[in-house]
Structures are given as structure tokens and as C-alpha cells.
Specification:
The structure holds 2 protein chains of 2 kinds. Chain A has 15 helices and 13 strands. Chain A is of the alpha/beta class. Chain A folds into 2 domains: 245 residues, Response regulator (Rossmann fold); 134 residues, Rossmann fold, CATH 3.40.50.2300. Chain B has one domain. Chain B has 12 helices and no strands. Chain B is globular and about 60 Å long. The chains are: A alpha/beta, B mainly alpha.
Chain lengths: 439, 298
């Protein structure tokens, strides 16, 4: 308790100092607004992810910045609320010489500022959420659903379940329940699952759970009656732990459950206790320890600048996800500097170019101390996603363990077709002429 | 038919959990006419205090519960002293707005003191079906839900005893019937309000322990209050038995509706179905099943 209060007071002082720093940012400081959420229903996820972002920024700064350019940031509390998120974006977009990249970490906020970022020329990353068709950079030049989007995740899920069944053809006649959060987020993979249902001949049963999902007896009694071969859990927040516990209650094997990556953090399984053993989810980070995490422990936490209140959360799923986002942004800034001038502060347009020309291969990931932590990422104007690769992890009761040694990639050709079709519709609706922006 | 009864029983047992939260609302409304919007936040604060004391201070569950109880009782008296007393004789809506403010304060306070991490809470009650029932009938009846129902029943019995057999209970009933008349015979209104808020805090603690053990101790516990609203509309805002019966009706009907009507309308209806049911019920009996019938002379 004392630690939390001390932490809050220290945080207030740091936030105030950061705010002053950001306002008086010198020419050698690159400003990044952080639309974070550390209170409210999704605070445990927000504190982990934004903790990871800030830890990595501190590491980069401790190592001299990006070719000498230090990163500055200011947090604005959104509480995962779309209206507050838009307000935070508007408040921070001109600060510190201007925002150069923004990550709202909320589909609602991302939709709220989708049109604004293009006008303001501030690139927005939506790593692992948001519009799947934003992978087409010709239509969404300022939006980057980096690493992988929901549609590729859904394709990866079916591929994995096919492997579990003994081959994709063995899915014919099987029953797969899609237990989803009854929102746009939960419905996002419908087109992919429906396409696979037709193609592979399994039976897809969709069962919605009303927000927030803290009561799921009726859904799981239906599942028990249907006795499906697999259950895909597309949940968020409290819905995940409740689903796992209720599955145990009705005797459904957790080994047959496969969660989305937003149902695959420590915060989702710890409240479920032993019921979560054997439960698997998708992820775009391989669980484990990496040199970059050791560096953060040594140079950031060792210097008393760590952002997490609880050091045990270093390397947790959400913390690693935050570090991953920060790696991608800093690499985009570095890439932009290679083109527009090393040691200079980049504009939003220049960082956008950097994000569109990322190339994190194994060699570069090894240099960053993150080889294997995330898949190689190579973006282009046509592909703002850059990877599409996922892994499957299983909770063993104490920690997540990767169960697919290699990255899993679903039917990317099919997903690409869907991205093209959907983005073309959006372009027609918004009267956008698809084109690559000049560098 | 077996499946129907399985859903019905699961619904009834869920309804008991809703009733547990509704009880807190009823107690305060009955004694002071205030709709306590902060009841969900009190549930969250109580559960987080127990989990926090266990995790951060290494207290056992049985040591953490009394400490949390003291915290909730102190909170009840403090609320009366700081929030309600200055608003005596103000309009009901003013008091209601004050409880909205209290909600945000308690949510923030809980996270400030204990952090925003999700916490596990084990009460030692297994959340698995009774094997004997499963083997003989094929139906799943959760041990946890049955124990929760028994705890709820015991709580109602204790509340009934307090209300009917103690001096403070009689004072509570007098205040509930008529504030001014109670004051005129020397009943200390403010003390009674403090006691009611403290008792509501204890009810919140029991609800928080059971909901927290079921779903994990996290911010979403504040949302369980939303489940209590249709229960209150149906059962009446001033009746303890009404909260129980309302909870049972809401729990059973929402589960049956989700399973048997849901598939025809796209599913996901249990979030709003209880409200529709409650609204329809309002047309027929505005004071709820057990609420006091309001008769006014014109």
C-alpha cells in the first residue's frame, strides 16, 4: 500500500517534470504522446503495456537516444474511454514540437482519431487491434496495424486447430464455437471464420457474451450441450477469466480452448487459478527472457527509473507488448533518420515513412536483444502490417510457454484479398484514391 | 427437459448473487431514501481490501476479512458524517448526485491504495459441480453457487433478526417509516444513517468476497451493481425479501431468455433482457413486488 502511494507521488512529480520537459522540449528531443490508461476497467493491461513503452524509452535514452535524439513523452489518462482518448490526442498533438507517432491502445479511440491523424499527419499504430483492412497503406497511409491484425490472427487460429486435428482436411465435420465479446471487436473475425467454414466444412457456432461478461453460465451451458471440438475465446477484460472458470465449472477441457491474444495475459489467467491450466492463446510475443529485458532490469530499474510498481511484471505479456511497440516506433524513427538526417528530430510525416519502411530482420532483432521475442517485421506501402505471424502459448499454472516453436502464418493470400476488398469499399465511401505517399 | 431445469437452476443461483448486491441498495434506500449509486464501488473496495491485505501484508483470509470489515464500517460512518450530514434536508436528487461523486472517489481510492492489478481471491470453496447430483440427474449444480446461496440466506436471516429483534433495528424501521416522526420521538437520525451505511458496507464485503472469488478481484466488480438494478425494480427498493425474490426471477429469466430466445435474435440478450422485464413489470406494479404501495391524498 505504502509502495503504491509512494509510487503515485513519485509518478505525479515525474509527470509534472515530464510535462515541463515536454513543453520546453529542445531541438534534440522527439516527442511521443502516450494515451494511456492506468485506472478503470482495463488498467491492469494499460499499466503493463505503457509501463513497457516507458521502460524501453528510458533504456534508449540511457543508451544515448536515437543517434543522440532523446525521446520525451507525456501521458494522458484515457481510462479506455473513446471521448477522453480523442480529447487527449487533441491536447497532446501539438506539444513538444508536435506528436510524431500515436498509439491509442483502444479500438474506440483509434476509430475516433482515424480521420484526424491523416489530417494532422501523425502516424497511428494499432498493434494487434483496430481495423484489419488498415493493413493497406494505399488507403490508410497514416494507420499501421503492425505485426499482425485480427484477420491474420483468425487465420492463424484455424491453421493451428487444423494442426491439432491432424490436418486441415480433418476439420471437416468438426464443431467450433466462437465465444465472443458482443461488440465490433468480437465480430471482427466473422468474415475469416465464415470463409474457412465454407472452405473446410466445419460447423461454426457463434455465441455472444454481453459486455462486460462477468456472468457466462448460459453461454457455457449451451457450449456443454453442443459439445464442440474447440472453443475460440475472443474476449477482453473480466470476460476471459470468467470464461475459463465457467468452462471448468461445466467440465469443458481448457486444452480445447484457444484464446485471442487479448485473452492471453497473466491478468486473464491468474484470477482463474488452477482452472486455467492447459488453456492456450495466440500471441505475437514469444514468452521468455531476452537480453533487452535484462538491459531494462539493469539500466532502467537499476537506476531507479523503472515504470512498473511491481518488478515481477517485467517480461509479463503486457509489459513485453509495450516494449515491442516501443521497439517498432524507435526503429521507425531511426529508419527515418537514415533517410532525412541522422541526429535530427523527425516530423510525423518522416516517422510515417519510417514505419512504412521498417525492416526488422533476425540480425537487427538480435542487435536489439529481442531475437525471437517478436517476429521479423518488414513493412511497405502495400503492407502496413509487416508480418502476419503469430504463436500459440499455453498457461502451465505458473507461466506462459510457447507451444509452437515456429511462427504460425495463416492463409495470407486469402487475408490479403479480404483486406483489398474491404479497404476498397472504405476508399469508395470516403472518396479516397488509393496511392502510396511519396517519401 | 433436463437442460431446461439445468439452465433454470443455474439462473436461480446466479440470481442469488445479484440479490446479494441488491441488498446493499435496499438497506440504504429503506432507511434514508437515498439510492446509493456507490454500492458497486463499495463491493470493489471491500474485495480489493481483502485481496490487498492478503497479497501485500501476507495476512490470512480470516485475518483480512475482519480488517476489511472495520474499513467498511468506518467508511459507512465517515460517509454519513462527511457526505450525507451536510446534505440533510436537501432534495433526494442532491443526495443521489453525492453518491455518484462517492462512486468515483471510492473507485479511485481503491486503485490508489491497492493498485490496478487483477488479484486472485480464494475462499476455499470449489467452483465445480456436485458429483452426486451430476451422476443421479446429469445436471450440473455448482458447489460454489450453492454455498453462495446459503451465505446469502444466512445474511438475510441475520439482517431480519437485527431489524426485528434489536433496539437499533427498531430505530432503523422507525426511520425508514418516517424520518420526522422518528426524530420527534428522540431517535438519532444521523446515528441510524451511519449504522445503515456501515451495514451496507458489510453486505458489500460479503458480495465482494463471493464475486471476487468467482471472477477475480478487478475493476469489473463495480459493474455487478448494474445487475442489481433490475432486481431492485422488480423486487422493490425497500424490501429485503423483495431483493431475494427479484434476484431469483431476474437470474432465472435472463438465463432462460439467453438460451431459448437468444439464438433467434442473434444472442447476447442477457445484458438487456432483465431491464426490459423490469420495465414491463413497472407498468403493472410500479412499486415492485414487495415495495411499499404509495397512497397520496389529493
Amino acid at each position: 500500500m505504502k509502495r503504491h502511494i509512494t509510487r503515485l507521488l513519485a509518478g505525479t512529480v515525474v509527470a509534472a517534470a515530464t510535462a515541463i520537459t515536454s513543453i520546453t522540449a529542445s531541438a534534440q528531443e522527439q516527442f511521443v504522446p502516450l494515451l494511456s490508461y492506468r485506472v478503470g476497467p482495463y488498467a491492469s493491461g494499460g499499466s503493463g503495456i505503457f509501463g513497457g513503452v516507458i521502460d524501453y524509452f528510458n533504456l534508449v535514452n540511457a543508451q544515448g537516444g536515437i543517434n543522440g535524439v532523446k525521446i520525451t513523452w507525456e501521458e494522458c489518462e484515457t481510462e479506455y474511454n473513446a471521448a477522453r482518448g480523442v480529447e487527449c490526442y487533441e491536447r497532446l498533438k501539438k506539444k513538444g514540437g508536435g506528436a510524431t507517432v500515436v498509439e491509442p491502445l483502444s479500438t474506440g479511440i483509434a476509430y475516433g482519431i482515424l480521420d484526424r491523424v491523416a489530417v494532422d499527419k501523425v502516424p497511428m499504430t494499432t498493434m494487434g487491434y483496430g481495423r484489419s483492412d488498415a493493413a493497406n497503406g494505399k488507403v490508410f497511409p497514416y494507420v499501421f496495424p503492425l505485426i499482425t491484425n485480427y484477420w491474420n490472427q483468425a487465420a492463424g487460429m484455424i491453421k493451428y486447430l487444423g494442426e491439432q486435428a491432424g490436418g486441415m482436411d480433418k476439420l471437416k465435420g468438426k464443431k467450433i464455437v466462437h465465444l465472443y465479446h458482443d461488440s465490433a471487436y468480437g465480430k471482427e473475425p466473422f468474415p475469416v471464420f465464415e470463409a474457412y467454414e465454407k472452405q473446410l466444412g466445419f460447423q461454426l457456432i457463434k455465441i455472444p457474451v454481453a459486455h462486460p461478461g462477468n456472468e457466462q453460465n448460459s453461454q457455457w451451458l449451451q457450449i456443454r450441450r453442443e459439445n464442440p471440438d474447440y472453443v475460440i475465446l475472443w474476449g477482453w477484460g473480466v470476460m476471459n477469466a470468467v470464461a475459463i472458470k465457467t468452462a471448468a465449472r461445466v467440465g469443458y477441457p481448457r486444452e480445447k480452448m484457444l484464446g485471442v491474444w487479448w485473452a492471453g495475459s497473466e491478468e486473464d489467467v491468474i484470477p482463474a487459478g488452477d482452472a486455467a491450466k492447459g488453456y492456450s492463446t495466440m500471441t505475437f510475443n514469444t514468452p521468455g527472457n531476452y537480453p533487452v529485458l535484462d538491459e531494462i532490469r539493469k539500466k532502467v530499474y537499476g537506476a531507479g527509473k523503472g515504470n512498473l510498481a511491481d518488478r515481477d511484471r517485467i517480461g509479463s505479456v503486457y509489459h513485453m507488448r509495450g516494449i515491442t511497440a516501443a521497439i517498432l516506433w524507435t526503429e521507425a524513427i531511426r529508419k527515418a533518420q537514415d533517410k532525412y538526417g541522422k541526429g535530427k528530430v523527425m516530423t510525423g510525416e518522416q516517422v510515417r515513412w519510417g514505419l512504412e519502411n521498417l525492416n526488422l530482420d533476425d540480425k537487427r532483432l538480435r542487435e536489439l536483444g529481442a531475437l525471437g521475442m517478436l517476429p521479423p517485421v518488414k513493412t511497405s506501402c502495400e503492407d502496413h502490417e509487416g508480418s502476419g505471424a503469430v504463436k500459440v502459448q499455453t498457461w502451465d499454472g505458473k507461466a506462459w510457454k510457447a507451444v509452437t516453436p515456429n511462427w504460425v502464418i495463416g492463409d495470407r493470400a486469402m487475408i490479403r484479398r479480404m483486406v483489398e476488398e474491404s479497404s476498397a469499399k472504405y476508399a469508395a465511401e470516403k472518396k479516397i484514391t488509393p496511392a502510396c505517399l511519396p517519401g | 427437459m433436463q437442460f431446461f431445469f439445468e439452465v433454470l437452476i443455474a439462473g436461480l443461483l446466479s440470481g442469488v448473487m445479484y440479490a446479494l448486491v441488491a441488498l446493499g441498495f435496499v438497506l440504504i434506500f429503506k432507511a434514508s431514501g437515498v439510492f446509493n449509486f456507490a454500492q458497486g464501488a463499495m463491493v470493489f473496495l471491500a474485495a480489493l481490501t481483502v485481496a490487498g491485505l492478503k497479497d501485500e501484508f501476507g495476512l490470512s483470509l480470516w485475518a483480512a476479512i475482519p480488517v476489511a470489515m472495520v474499513v467498511m464500517i468506518a467508511l459507512g460512518f465517515l460517509t454519513e458524517r462527511v457526505v450525507l450530514r451536510p446534505l440533510v434536508n436537501q432534495h433526494d436528487i442532491t443526495l443521489f448526485m453525492a453518491t455518484i461523486g462517492l462512486t468515483f472517489f471510492l473507485e479511485g481510492l481503491a486503485q490508489l491504495v491497492w493498485g490496478s492489478n487483477v488479484r486472485k481471491l480464494e475462499l476455499g470453496i470449489e467452483d465445480v459441480p456436485f458429483e452426486a447430483i451430476m451422476e443421479s440427474t446429469g445436471m450440473l449444480v455448482s458447489q460454489f453457487d450453492v454455498v453462495a446461496a446459503l451465505i446469502c440466506g444466512a445474511l438475510v436471516a441475520v439482517l431480519a433478526l437485527i431489524f426485528n429483534k434489536t433496539k437499533i433495528g427498531r430505530a432503523l424501521r422507525a426511520v425508514a417509516d418516517d424520518h420526522q416522526a422518528a426524530l420527534s420521538v428522540g431517535i438519532p437520525l444521523q446515528h441510524v444513517w451511519g449504522v445503515v451505511w456501515a451495514v451496507a458496507g458489510i453486505v458489500a464485503l460479503v458480495a465482494g468476497l463471493l464475486w471476487g472469488a468467482r471472477n477475480g478481484v478487478q475493476f469489473a466488480l463495480t459493474f455487478v451493481a448494474l445487475k442489481a438494478l433490475p432486481v431492485l425494480i422488480l423486487g422493490g427498493f425497500t424490501s429485503v425479501p423483495g431483493a431475494i425474490v427479484g434476484g431469483l426471477i431476474i437470474g432465472a429469466s435472463e438465463k432462460l431468455a439467453e438460451v431459448f430466445i437468444g439464438p433467434y435474435v442473434g444472442g447476447g440478450i442477457e445484458g438487456w433482457f432483465p431491464y426490459v422485464l423490469a420495465l414491463v413489470f413497472l407498468l403493472v406494479r410500479p412499486e415492485g413486488l414487495f415495495g411499499e404501495k404509495i397512497i397520496r391524498r389529493i
